[in-house]
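Example 3.
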Amino acid sequence: MKKVNFSAGPAILPQEVIKQAAEAIIDYAGTGLSILEVSHRSKEFVATMEKATALVRDLFQLPDNYAVLFLSGGASTQFFMAPMNLLNEDDKAGYISTGSWAKNAIKEAKAFGKINVLASSEEDNFKYIPKNYEIPQNLKYLHLTSNNTIFGTQYHQWPESPVPFVCDMSSDIFSRPVNVSRFDLIYAGAQKNMGPAGVTLVIVKKDILGKVSRYIPTMLKYETHINGESMYNTPPVYAIYVSMLTMQWIKDNGGLEAMAQRNEAKARLIYDEIDRNQLFYGHAVPEDRSQMNVCFRLHDESLEAEFLKRCAEKGLDGLKGHRSVGGFRASIYNAMDLEGIQKLVDLMQDFEKEKA
Amino acid sequence: MKKVNFSAGPAILPQEVIKQAAEAIIDYAGTGLSILEVSHRSKEFVATMEKATALVRDLFQLPDNYAVLFLSGGASTQFFMAPMNLLNEDDKAGYISTGSWAKNAIKEAKAFGKINVLASSEEDNFKYIPKNYEIPQNLKYLHLTSNNTIFGTQYHQWPESPVPFVCDMSSDIFSRPVNVSRFDLIYAGAQKNMGPAGVTLVIVKKDILGKVSRYIPTMLKYETHINGESMYNTPPVYAIYVSMLTMQWIKDNGGLEAMAQRNEAKARLIYDEIDRNQLFYGHAVPEDRSQMNVCFRLHDESLEAEFLKRCAEKGLDGLKGHRSVGGFRASIYNAMDLEGIQKLVDLMQDFEKEKA
């Protein structure tokens, strides 16, 4: 039975990408060697790195004053690396608290400057994205988490920021067009829409760097990796290769506009069923619902285990909700197709009929 | 033509490992999913992580008071993470300067304490491993680089250290038995004997931690990853999986004693030819020669390009020496067999006959 992978991350990748990714393990770019054992300085891998960088530039139509970096350490490393590179001790930054990852970003940033939490939806278990807060002009930057994997909320409109704008896009990057010129720093762990775990994308406006006075270890300075073209040290070769393949797949399938259209249609299919079905309800408020992570529950919680068992029987995998929300979470990243979601919707309908 | 991979890193891996590594891209552990898209919290990957940890413990016969961590960021991250976790600002540490990587370790450590370079072979282009230096008792630790990839030298005997002992074993870990109880912290980028680029092994004696007063970001504290069992955040799943396969291969092939015997025999074959052949000479002094990276040159440098061309024609790949030494470098890690080295030796002999 073919499985449908609803995992929140590491997450579903396109079948075409997986096929090419397996081929390169045996013979990479006609070298006769596995990609796992080639030098990162080989002309073949330098070409892969250049292609990966060019694809990010192409998909986002990046202006020249932005650098593209492939780093390691995940978004959890960016939580401290961003303030370490952007904030002096007495500088202020504003953060919006929209979930567990936003809270971690806030916690790590506090060691490097004065952090103002401008708005939070924590008192309502992060069911919504706060709006209509003031963004003081004296902040060095504003930090947002664009999509909240655990709580299933997503920004559908960016705040007008009078200050530089830093955004953790780990769980919705490449799912829709983004006007990057509104941002100063974007970071994203790869393991949702971009590729396998083990690489982190950073897009940074170069002129915001070099303005803090603290000592920064070489590996933690963005400039090190800009100057080294993401090869200051040995990069995570294979994770970058598979990310390149995935970005090529996005491009071949119409780019970010096409991804956004597909993702809207997919999200509509499952949210319409959640709203129609008598048994289920959604966690997030409708206007802030995520198109990547759909968090939903059963009114009768005692049926949860049974529904999950039925999902497993149908090959619908990874649907157990995060303990912070409970219930179910369907992660429906770029590589998920409508057919996969339809199987889940069919099961929800069957389940409703049975329990009626 | 089958290539022989003499690359310094990322480097040759066993063919059996590559085959299993490719299979898991298509179907991981019978899940019906690619390992690139499974959750790191899945029971299958938790089992892989546990097995990888157990293999490190087993191969090194690790005492219980040592933790095994799989991190990201490479040895270049350990260069600052080790002193950040072990040194207060006024504490002293001793470093031995045996090559480019040792120098980088020294440079990064200087931000976190008082660094004494106890000995250096830099004035002689790092041809030897310094010996007979004094190790002051008041040091917090002594730091060594066990094998110098660029210069082809290696410690064959550890100094008697009266202070805690920190060692970068990136390029010879798993190549020979190590009495870990003599060390307090060992770190190694995977991309030589352990696996593909993208994961870093850390073996740490737990009681040396928690003694510094500076603030350390969560991701940079060893304790975070001890408590999180290397899963505080999403780990580099695939690089850990392939490392596990490689360690299993080492175990199946007799463990570290057997690796050491094979590696001694392989090194003897190539060094004997370098010493015998009228055209070539070695870079390192004989007593400190590396069994992993064999650096050698032609007396007549004008023949270098021709020799490299002949190597390429025979499928002998990755032999160009690092610019700091010039000439050639044959990296002959665990997965290299005698047959591969014999091909290089045969070519050296043919080349000598031609040029006689």
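The mean pLDDT of chain A is 97. Chain A has two domains: 4-12+254-355, 16-252.
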